[in-house]
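Re: the request from the purification team.
They wanted to know what the chain is likely to look like in 3D before they choose a buffer screen. I agreed to run a prediction and write the result into the notebook, where they can find it.
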Amino acid sequence: MLFNSIDFAVFLPIVFFLYWFVTNKNLKLQNFLIVGSSYLFYGWWDWRFLSLILFSTIVDYSVGLLLSKEKKKKKRIVLLWTSIVINLGFLGFFKYYNFFLDNFVTAFSFFGSEIKESSLNIILPVGISFYTFQTLSYTIDVYKRKLEPTKDFIAFSSFVSFFPQLVAGPIERASNLLPQFYKKRIFDNSKAVDGLYLIIWGLFKKIVIADSCAIYTNEIFSKYESMNSLSLLIGAIYFAFQIYGDFSGYSDIAIGTSKLFGIDLKRNFAFPYFSRDIAEFWRRWHISLSTWFRDYLYIPLGGSKVSKLLSFRNIFIIFLVSGFWHGANWTFIIWGILNALYFIPLFLTNRNRNNLDIVSKGKIIPSFYELISMITTFFLVIIGWIFFRADTVSIAIDYIKKLFSFNFENGLQYLSIERYTPELMILILCFVIVEWNSRENEHPFFGKWLNFKLILTLIGIITLGVYSNVTDFIYFQF
């Protein structure tokens, strides 16, 4: 079920009504409603994969209970690895089986050996990368004795399958989300209003910004061979705003929807395109994933508290794994490696934690140095996005070569799209201004500066977009 669909527009009010007016006096029943609603939400896409979520839930719930009783270190390690192997085994099979098989066959063909491959028509379960990491964090935290295992299976099932963030995050930690299912929720009107504002803002990002940019992005990338440098640059910029509007829009809707049910989710984006270097960008982009890799991979490997050589290794590992997490394609791996190469100079010069504050805090406009830093960082990011968006590495390289050919003949080339490019450029500029003015807040809440008529206008625009152009969220494929 898509957030930007009529199905969800009907689903959400029904669940909200049942949650606050029917089951509100019984916590267990309220949690059971969350589980049932979440399974319905996920099963709307393909009910067959509900068994995967249920199995993962049972495995990690059981492992958590067994870890609480087991004192011997060796047996605790076996239990931990049972959870890791089962969860990553399912993820690896559904997401990476054909990738590894194809590359295995290609490698042997290179050395003159022919192997008959047997690729499977595997459907990737929506959100498997997200809920797999979420349940793994629970098991790891219980193993490290950072978290007491739960004996409440319904509460744990609510934590695993909570529908607002089930298929595209934020990737929640059990230490934050699970305890919220233990205690009675009381309706908070101000929190619900903030939630509605976030939902509206998220839908605006997705439907008005991301989906509009997608139309141009798709055409420019599909015809990149005939495009000049200016058009290719605009195509890369459009994709940058497409993926940001799409993914951060989903996170806003997820966080806003959760607020309607009295549940707080972690922030996932913090205005990343105002970053002054790549290190700051990764502290502000997909925060739940970045911090997951930091806490469960980078730090256990030694982080930066080891030799420089091992630190380089650790940095490359987390960026490489981050790229591979996004998809079974060499384009994502190259994207991860490229970001590691961006990051290494900052690490070598101890400047990777220079920009921890909000850019130009308390000021209307940035300084010249800050502006140049943001533009440079954004340009580096969009070069990386070209690999992320391209179907193959060779296409991405060709795209970048043509981009740097400095061919500006014919100016902005004609595109067979009904909408006009200048209008979209103005829309993106206005969007950037709104985000810039809101950068000191967690989110650009409407209540502080938008009037009721403008909110109704935005809802109208979003509604028209829902009816005319319902599209999947990009991160559903991950």
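For the purification team: The two ends are 16 Å apart (CA to CA).
Please add any questions underneath this entry.
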